[in-house]
Amino acid sequence: xxxxxxxxYPMPPVAAVEPPAEWEELRQQCPxxxxxxxxxxxxxxxxxxxxxxxxxxDPRFGxxxxxxxxxxxxxxxxxxxxxxxxxxxxxxxGDGHQRWRRMLTKWFTTKRMAALRPRIEAxxxxxxxxxxxSGQPADLKAAFxxxxxxxxxxxxxxxxxxxxxxxxxxxxxxxxxxxxxxxxIDAAQAEFTAYMTELVEAKRKQPGTDLLSDxxxxxxAAGEKLSAEALVATGKGLLIAGHETxxxxxxxxxxxxxxxxxxxxxxxxxxxxxxxxxxxxxRYDANPGFGLTRYLDEDVEVPSGGVLPxxxxxxxxxxxANRDESVFTDAAELDLTRSPNLHITFGAGPHxxxxxxxxxxxxxxxxxxxxxxxxxxxxxxxxxELPPVEGLLVGGLREVPVVW
Length: 404
Known about the structure:
Layout: E1 7-8, H1 22-29, E2 32-36, E3 42-46, H2 49-57, H3 94-105, H4 110-134, E4 138-139, H5 140-145, H6 147-157, H7 167-174, H8 182-205, H9 211-217, H10 228-259, H11 261-269, H12 274-284, E5 292-296, E6 300-301, E7 307-308, E8 312-316, H13 318-321, H14 356-373, E9 378-379, E10 401-403
Parallel strand pairs: 1-2, 3-8
Antiparallel strand pairs: 2-3, 4-10, 5-8, 6-7, 9-10
Helix pairs in contact: 4-6, 4-14, 6-10, 7-8, 8-10, 10-11, 10-14, 12-14
């Protein structure tokens, strides 16, 4: 394939809630496409459901792209999420990774989420009270979509309330694709690491009942404790993943529902649809960001045909896969009653999102509270005027102006 044949990736969204037209074309004609990343390096883009699910679920391949020969993602070799200069202190595959996951997953069980739900509802009601008192129009993302996930994850981790406001900038720099220069990223991440190191040491001296304290005092199934570096990396990762993706998803979810009033009115009339609606919105999301990368150090045969050779950096586009007509009937339609819904928004297999139960719970609570408190909610601008997030590895909307 020549340089001219390469597709530049990521593809910019054409609209706030609509996917790039190239997704369908690639799924049909070129399910394993050669793409050029902002760094200039090449990768293989997967867009069919079966291909994406197989690669994500393969236990041989972790998230790391630090292997020699792996494609660099960002244009300037930043120290963000994919281009860190040092190996992660958290095992990225194998038994070590699974033991690390098991230390976390007990904090995200159905029982724990049920116990946490009233607290999330109380936080949501408080934020709605504040948004209403400030008047309309309001930016739903700034007033509600951002603070709620931050409050929840900080509460879970035991982060002091006064420290919440630091995380937005630190998180953005960690997920930067082109927004920040390397020096800005390095400075912000040094601050983030120093903060989390101090927090870990404080909890080591005086443990609480929070997740981070539990990781500090506990051991995995092999009787091994997490190193200080692994504790810091875990804390940083949970703070970022625990608020950034959910914050963006809240904004996108409400834009999807309010872009066509019949969708919102369907939920107002029948709030029992909230659970299936959340799953469908997760599937339908057209602006999720970069996708997940896997560095393949062995040859892999994919269901669509052909072999991905060892040394390939594969980009798994879950959002494109979630629109695969061979798996989802009327995949281009938003069906709030769709069930079953086997979307792979949270990944698949041993590396699927460890906090997906928390994300689901938060999104369900958001819908339930907004339906109860603001049934007349509407976008304050046409959906086409909603500005997208740019320059980050996660997709979303910068603001979501609403009236009620």
